[in-house]
Amino acid sequence: MSHVRQQIRERVASTLTGLSTTGNNVFQSRVYPLNESVLPALLIYSKNEDSEITTIGTSLGIERNLIITIEAYVKVTTNFDDLIDTICAEIEAALGNDIKLNNLAKFSYLQSTEIQYDGDGENPIGYATLNYFVQYRTGQNTPETAE
Q1: What is the count of structural domains for the chain?
Q2: Banded pLDDT at 55 (limits 50, 70, 90)
Q3: Strand 61-74 and strand 107-118: pairing?
Q4: Which ranges of 66-105 would DSSP assign to H, the alpha helix?
Q5: Residue 147: inside a domain, yes or no?
């Protein structure tokens, strides 16, 4: 079985696959080569995680605060802001309907969004970075099981 962090990342990817604008162009990696043929696309990865002990006993309980990053990439020369906002709205609606991520998490929410546009070169690319805060719990010796 895989770490709960991986299960959460996979759940987010599954939830976001099939959205109207990005379709099946959803990849669980921060180093995926994005060709024009797969744009618009989403990249999903675990950014960082903090942990603290919540239960002391024969086994320690650990509360984990995870940042899941979703990058939405588009290639457009006009209406960039509108397209990015549409994609962000689809992501936010989909994840807002599953804040416990299929009971893997205690809760999750959109922590921040950053939007950038790079018009250099012949292929202008724009992207939004959405950071989701996800709180979940595991046992110290059972990182594959959400509590």
Answers
A1: 1
A2: confident
A3: unpaired
A4: 80-96
A5: no
